[in-house]
Design a protein that fits this description.
The structure holds 2 protein chains of 2 kinds. By secondary structure, chain A is mainly beta. Chain A has one helix at residues 203-236; strands spanning 5-12, 19-24, 29-37, 48-53, 56-58, 62-63, 67-74, 81-88, 92-100, 104-105, 111-114, 119-125, 132-139, 142-145, 155-161, 164-169, 178-186, 189-200. In chain A, the strands form 4 sheets. Chain A has a 5-stranded mixed beta sheet, with no helix packed on it. Chain A has a 5-stranded mixed beta sheet with strand order 11-18-17-13-14, with no helix packed on it. Chain A has a 4-stranded mixed beta sheet with strand order 1-3-7-6, with no helix packed on it. The termini of chain A are far apart. Chain B has helices at 6-18, 22-29, 31-41, 43-62, 67-96, 101-151, 168-176, 179-195, 197-208, 213-239, 245-262, 269-298, 303-332, 336-354, 357-360. The chains are: A mainly beta, B mainly alpha. The A-B interface holds A 109-114, 117, 200, 202, 204-206, 208-209, 211-213, 215-216, 219-220, 223-224, 227 and B 48, 127-131, 133-135, 137-138, 140-142, 144-145, 147-148, 151-152, 154. Chain B: Residues 364-388 are annotated as: Disordered. Chain B: GO terms for molecular function: monocarboxylic acid transmembrane transporter activity.
Amino acid sequence: KMFFVKNFFTLLGVSGTSMEKNITLDSAARIELSCRLDNKYSHLKSLQVTWKRGNETLRHINKTENSWSIQLRILDNSKLGSYSCTLRGEEEISAMFHLQVPKIEGKEKPIVSYEGDTAVMICKSFGYIPIAWTWYMTNGSEQVAINDSLLADKYVINRISANVTNLKILKLTKEDDGIYWCEAAFELGRSKGKLKLKVLSLMVPLKPFLAIVAEVVVLVTIVFLYEMYSKKKEKCA
Amino acid sequence: CLRPLGGAFGARAGAAAWVGSAPLAALQLGGPLGSALSTRFGARPVAMVGGFLSGLGLFLGAFATHMTHLYLSVGLLAGLGWALVFTPSLGTVGRYFPAQRALATGLAVSGASVSGLALGPLVPLLLDTYGWRGALLLLAAISFNLVAAGALLRPLPVPNESPGPPRDRPGLVRLLRHGPFLRYALTFVLVDAGYYVPFVHGAARAHEVGCDEHRAGLVMAAMAAVDGGGRIAAGWLAGQPATPLLRHLFAWVLLTGLVLLLLPLGTSFGGLLALALAYGFCAGALVPLQFAGVAEVVGTGQLVHAIGLMQMFESFGSLLGAPFAGWLRDMTGNYTISFLAAGAFLLAGSLLILTLPGFFHTSQGSGGKEGSPAPAPDGPETPPTPPI
C-alpha cells in the first residue's frame, strides 16, 4: 500500500463567508487538513477551534501558533466526506473540506440517434485512472448493469484508454431510449456519470422536411404562374 | 421588368454552400461544367437541376451507412449541384445588370454571409434536436430552396450584349489561349491560396494567442459578419463611376494581402478581433469584384465560360492554400509564417492584376457597351463554414 501525505489549508478570515474546498482522492492516502487563522485575529486569546465530521467531533488536533490541523488516514470509502473546522469566538467562522472520489462527466445534452442505427456513448475520467468501468441502463427506477458478453450482438463495451470507456448499442429500438450511467470504480469508492439517449424514428425529421419541400413546390409554382400571367398581359396589351 | 435577384437568391445559394467544405472543391472544379451546361440549356434549368442535385446529395447523405457514402453524396453530388447553381446564377446577375454589375454581384454574393451567420447557430441546433441524420435531412430541404431560387433566373434578352462565340468547346479553347484571361485566372489561383487561410485556421490561431472557445468563436463570427458588409460595400463602391473596376479590384486584393501580413501582430483577443474585422471586410470586398472583373477581361460573350474555367483553376489555389498554411505552422510552431505566406500570395496576385489590359486604359463606362462580358461570379463565394 502506498501512502501519500497531502496538506491542505484554508485561511479562516472573513466571517460570514462560507469557505469550502473540494479534495479529490482516488486511492488510499494520508491527509492533513489545517485551518489557519488570518493575522487580524491573532490578537484574540482563548480561541476554540473544533474539527467535526458531520456531528462527530474529532480529537487529536495538532495546534501550532495560529493553525489547527488534523491528520486522517483515508483507507476506504467510509472515511470520505465533509470535514469542518469551526472557530468559536465572538463570531463563528468555519471552513469545510469535502473529501470525495473523482467525478465522472457524462454528457449534458442528450445523444440523438435513430432506430436501427448504432449509438456510441463515451465516458471520461479526468486525471484519475479507474480500476474498472461498469455501464448501467435504467429500467423504470432501477439501474441494471449491462452485460456485454451476455448480449454481445446488442452491447459492446470497450475501454479505449485508461481514462475512457465506450458503450456501443447496436440495432437501436425505441426501448433503448433513456438514461444510462457509466460508473468508475476507484479504490476509495465509485463515481457515476449520467448520459441520456434519445432514439427517434425517421418520421420525426421527416415532417419538417416535407413541410419545407412543400414550401419549395409552392414557391416554384408561384414563380411560373406569375410568369405565365405576365406574358399573357403582354400579349393582350 | 427585371427582378432584383440579390436578396432571395443570394441567401439561398449561401445556405447551400455553407454546408461542408469538401464540396467547395467540387463546386470550383465543376465550374466549367456549370458554364457549359448553362450556355447550352440556359441558366434557369441548369440552376434548378443543380438545386435539386444539391438537395438530393444531402438527402442521400442522411441515409448513409458508411463514411464513403457521405463523401459521395454530400461531397460529390451536393458539390456538383452547387457548381450547377453557382456559375449560371452569377453569370446571369452579371449579364442582367450591366450598369450596376458590381453592386448586383456584391448583393448576390453577400447572401452567403447571411446564411453563414444564420447557419452558425442553426446547425448545432439541428444536430442537438435531430442528430446528424435528421440535420442532413433538414439541410437537404433547405437546399431544395435553390430550385425555387433558380426558377427566378428568368431567361431574358439582354440588349447590347456582344455576341460571343456560341459553341461551347471553341469558346473554352479560345479562353485558354487568351493571355489576359489566363493572367486573371492565375491571379485568383494565387488569391485563393491565401484567401482561405484566416477562415480555415482562424479559430486555431485564436487559441494559439490564448483565446478560449467562446472568444475564438466570436472572432470567427465577427469576421464572417463584416465579410457580408464588405461584399456589398465594394460592389456599391465600384459602381460609382470614377475608376475602372480593375483598379478597385487591385486595391482590395492589395489591401487584403496587407491585412494578412499584419495578422500575426494580433496577439491579444482585442488585437486579433480588430485585425479579423479588417480582414473579413477586405476579403468580402474582393469577391464581387473578382466576378465583375471577368467581364472586363473577356467580354460578355465569353463570360459564363470564363467564370467556370476560372473557378476550375482557382480550385488548385484553394485546395492547396489552407493545407500549405497548416504545414507551415507545423514546421515553424505557430501561424506567423502561414499568414505571411498567405499575404504574399495575395500580393503576388495583385501584381498580376497590374498586367491586365483594362487596368491602365479606362474602359468605356461600367456597362454593357463594348461587349463587357457578363460578370463571372467565381471564386470564394462563401467564407469557410464555421465548424459544424
